[in-house]
Amino acid sequence: MTSMSSLQxxxxxxVVRIIDLHKYFGSLxxxxxxxxxxxxxxxxTIMGPSGSGKxxxxxxxxxxxxxxxxxxxxxxxxxxxxxxxxxxxREHVGMVFQSFNLFPHLSAKGNIMLALKKVLKRxxxxxxxxxxxxxxxxxxxxxxxYRPSQLSGxxxxxxxxxxxxxxxxxxxxFDEATSALDPELVRGVLDVMxxxxxxxxxxxxxxxxxxxxxxxxxxAVFMDEGVIVEQGCPEALFDNPQHExxxxxxxxxx
Length: 254
Prior knowledge:
By secondary structure, this protein is an alpha/beta fold. It is built from ten helices and ten strands. Strands 6-7-8-3-9-10 form a six-stranded mixed beta sheet, with helices on both faces.
């Protein structure tokens, strides 16, 4: 995938804007003034060593972690403003975690239907149809009535993606969505993410999957020690990194 979508959206207001974001856990500063903009329809991958602040940044975007200072904007709404109804905003931002967070007593279909009924107030029939449609999109139509314990890790993660998509989000956040999976199960999840990217979904993806970052992203971001060290089109960042820290990181993993 080329960087066409970033070019197409340069005249639009970014859908996500992060301005001078800082996050402390006690005395430890994990984010040290991060600035990042993401255009509508853009796929941005975030890479970096463990402890670099990648997951914390992602969790600050939908206020699962409250930033210490700085601003996060979603379209023209400052979500770090205490007056903002964050629960309403979260309806438009889907998130997929390392762990699948499925309810073990519910079927795949039931896990997807739950928020549709409780949060969006969909009827039983409507929620069921949406759940079945989303399971079809992730290739699990034949697993609708299976409980998580009857599914592989990759299938559970695809259910988690379907659950997030069922809320019709404008932005999808992925936090190491494949890191808990056995290697042979990773591809199925990445294939679903690739299809989402082709469909124009705005995605911010924290990942160690360098092939995905190179092939699918419009922009690759390298973080280390709480700051964005370098960012650019994946070809440039992977083939000709400008910063010594980026070169060192990529040299160890590619």
